[in-house]
Every structure is written in structure tokens, then in C-alpha cells.
Amino acid sequence: MKTLLILFVFMNLRPGHCTETRDQILSITPITQEQVDILKNVSTQYETSLWQPASPQYIKEETQVHLYVPANSSETVVDLLEKHNITHEVLQANANELIEMQTKNDSTDPRSGATFYERYHNLNDIYFWIERIIQDNPSKVKLILIGSSSEKRPLYVLKLSLNDNPGKKAMWIDCGIHAREWISPAFCLWFVQHSLSFYGQNQDITFILNNMDVYILPVLNPDGYDYTWTTNRMWRKNRSVSKSSGCIGVDLNRNFDANWCTEGASNDPCTEIYCGEFPESEPESQAVADFLRNHKDEVQLYFSIHSYSQMLLFPYSCSREEAENHKDLLEMTREAAQKIRRYYRNTYKYGAGSKTIYLAPGGSDDWAYNLGIKYSFTFELQDVGQYGFLLPPSHISKACNEALIAVKTIALRVIEKTRDLARQSPTF
Ligand code: 0X9
Ligand code: ZN
Known about the structure:
- GO terms for molecular function: metallocarboxypeptidase activity; zinc ion binding.
- This protein has helices at residues 2-13, 33-45, 71-83, 95-103, 123-136, 183-198, 203-211, 222-230, 283-294, 326-344, 353-356, 364-371, 396-424, and strands spanning 24-29, 49-52, 65-69, 87-92, 141-148, 154-160, 169-175, 212-217, 299-307, 311-314, 349-352, 375-381.
- It is α/β, with parallel strands linked by helices.
- The strands form two sheets. It has an eight-stranded mixed β-sheet, sandwiched between helices. The chain has a four-stranded antiparallel β-sheet with strand order 2-3-1-4.
- The radius of gyration is 22 Å and the shape is globular.
- The structure holds N~2~-sulfamoyl-L-arginine (0X9) and zinc ion.
- N~2~-sulfamoyl-L-arginine binds next to helix 12 and strand 12.
């Protein structure tokens, strides 16, 4: 009986003998240029979604590629890789299950001890959350409507102002510029909750909020985010319709006016890194740029939250040039990465974007930097690819705490530095 049972289990586990093939996440490492070309081809010609890098143009030899392969193309894709001897391994054999886990809002499940902030939320729930935060904290949080998306959804910024110290500066945090990076909006919610709960309790957050207001945009790309909940979990761009091609979406992190649409972006509307018709052609990027232009004397510190790959990046990504305060930025991210390692035993890379990840022009961090916000960062949160964009809800708390300690470390340093500067400048 036991032998029969083992035989039965074995037969059902044999590749190609599964009752049902599921969506998979593959990690593929091309070695030769020929393999690179084949892989570029596979990722564009077959129904797949390239996770890492963001576009086939960045695929290079001896660098891991993460590819989401839907069940219906998995046999063809794997056969092609095998035929050309391209090294690959399965990171996730059942991505559908991961998607289900992320969307199941198990507040009704009594076994789940997860709090609101340890779950992912759809756009409507986030709008409701914003409303509730404002109602519950009328003296601490203000709601600012900075514009609307291309499908006319509101773009709300929360202003946290917990203290009325005169001449207070501010930091900006945006989340969800890329639709599929769900841990990012989760972080914005986490940050607000942490600030409101621990102001007056935790020394660092109290000091930061005594010296800075915080502007938080929880979902910069609401149309894209909503689309990942309703239709395509792998969507990256916004949802504006290109007149010329009929293809949909602009990569909002290629649409800012920082070496716009040069190497590392594409003018093809059908690609994932389409830069748009002109800089700030999209209502979402324009709203952010307008707001920051109007608050540039106040905002000293800029954060844009992405995933995945565990990196703390700073300008420039739009060129190989070094930022004028490169040393300061490097030191700040080094310290933040060290804190993450010490407190959470996790490794984050850090450095200028163009050298640490890839050349990618038109990004919000570089644009904000050039506007005069000299402390400008992009964080890529967890993980490094095991789950990628499908990071399970049980990982939210650790991922957010890591990002939180990095934000706090950098904010404290910025306050310290700008205070020194203020002391140095002559008083009349
Ligand atoms: O390519 C991007 O926009 C970011 N990586 S992601 O995988 N989340 O898409 C990196 C952004 C780094 N900064 C700039 N390119 N300015
Ligand atoms: Zn991103």
C-alpha cells in the first residue's frame, strides 16, 4: 500500500505529468551572446513577463534574468532554453498560488494574526484608508489633492505635520510608481502608521518629525495599481493610451525631465520602459513634478520606493556622471545598509543608480536631484528574486521595517547636515 502511494505521488510530481501546469518564475543565466539574443527573443515573442531586468535591452551575459512564464507558454519556453543549453532554474513552480495568497484579504480568517498593515490592499481600500487616517488625525494629517491620473483617479498626498516648529523642512516619499511592485504602497501605509503610533514614543521618529514634515504619496500610479488587482498582476506602467501605436502605458519612471529618453529608455510605446511623448507628458509625473517645483525650498529629502532587488540608490541613473555630493550620498546609504544588516540580517547593495543597477534616464530621483533636492534616493525593497513582485504578505513587516530603518537613518543624517550648514551660514 505504502509503495503504491509513493508511486502515485512520484508520478504526479514528474515534470510534464502534472495534472495542471501552473505559472512559473524562472531564473535564467545566459552565458554567450547568442544565448543573450535567444533570451531577448523569448521574452518578447512569447507570452511572458520580464521581471529582472525591467527591459530585454538590459539583458547581458552572465547576469541572472527573472522571467514570469504563464502556464500556457511554459513548455515552449523551457524547451527552447533546453535546446540552446541555457542554464535555468525554477524559482517558483506555482506562481498562481502566490498571487492568490497576496490578494486574499484574510481579515475574516480567524487563524490569521496579520494586521491591516501586514496585508496588501486594493486601490479602493487604500482610498478608504486615507479617508480614515484624515478623520482620525485631523490635527496631524492633511490631505492634498495634487492632480489626477490619466483615467481620472485622484492623486492624494498626505502631509504629516506633528509639530509646529517654525522653519521646519520636509521630506517626500512616493510609492507605487510601478504598478506591480506591491510592497511599495504597503510601505507608504506602514510609514504613516509608524509615524502616527510612535511619535512621542520612539526617539528617532520623534526627532525626525520634530524637524521635518513628511509628504507621502501612497500610490503614484493608481490606474496601473488597480489594473494589477483586476486584470494583469504583472503590469508596470500607467494606463494611458498611445495615439500612434494603440499600445498602453508609459513608464512613469522614464517620463521625468532628466536626460529624458536617452540610453536606458525607449521611444517605443509597446515596451515596458517607454518614456512617453515628451517629458512630463503623463498627468501622474506632471502632478508630482509640479508639486515638488512649488515646494522645492521646503523639501530637502526625496525618496521613491520600488521593488525588487534590495538596493539603496541615488543619482545619477540618467548618466554615468557622479553627483556633486556623491560621497555624502554614498556614506548615508552605506550606513543605512549597515543598519539593515545589523538589525534585520539582510543585505542591501548601495550606490549610484547607473553603476549599481543600470542606466535609466527620466527617473524621478534624478529629476528631483536636479531641481535642487540634494538628498534624493530610490529604494528597491525585498526580495532578490525568490518571490520578486509576488512577495508574500508574511514578508511585509520585515521588508517595511528594513526600509523604515533606512529612511530614518538617512533622515537623521540629513537633519544633522543641514543644521551644520545653517550654523555655518552667516546671520545678518
Ligand atoms: O528601472 C527603474 O525605474 C527602477 N528599477 S525597477 O526594477 N523598480 O523598475 C530603478 C530606478 C533607479 N532610478 C532611476 N532610474 N532614476
Ligand atoms: Zn520600480
